[in-house]
Amino acid sequence: MAGYRKLGRTASQRKAMLRNQVTNLLYNGKIVTTECRAKEVKSIAEKMITLAIKEKDNYETVTVKAKVARKDKDGKNVKEVVDGKKVTVYDVVEKQSKKDSASRLHARRQMKAYLYDVTEVPTEAAGKKKATKKVDLTNKLFEEIAPKYADRKGGYTRIVKIGQRKGDAAMEVLLELI
Fold first, then answer.
1. What is the mean pLDDT of the chain?
2. How far apart are CA 165 and CA 29, in angstroms?
3. How far apart are CA 19 and CA 116, in angstroms?
């Protein structure tokens, strides 16, 4: 007996489909799919959320000093004449940043290896490549999803039966984050 459902696909197709559905579940919060697929996606998504919960507070805040070029009102670098040469003027800025511990970094890399990249396109700028932006799902897992479920022991998703699909009478379900 296999340890997982084969879903009528080859290994590479099955892996790609499950990666896609887990990515969409974590990005959108819910997906509509068949019952068998939902059960497989649920187990993978819950493992990722558990990993994010374990590592959500495992970082330290570091203050970093950086040199940043001074800008004028038009957004151009301010230049100053020194010894007959034009030189860009820099200001020293302190920034706060999070430094992941080794285990959190490993968890982040495991998530990145499984999840697909998500590109968000605003509706008013549809079709324009410049308006798109990449969504960091690992950050979303650590910053939004993990704190939401920190006090739960499991069961981060819910399967709600919708009914049978018209074409092949497969049971369709709504898989959502609780």
1. 91
2. 22
3. 7
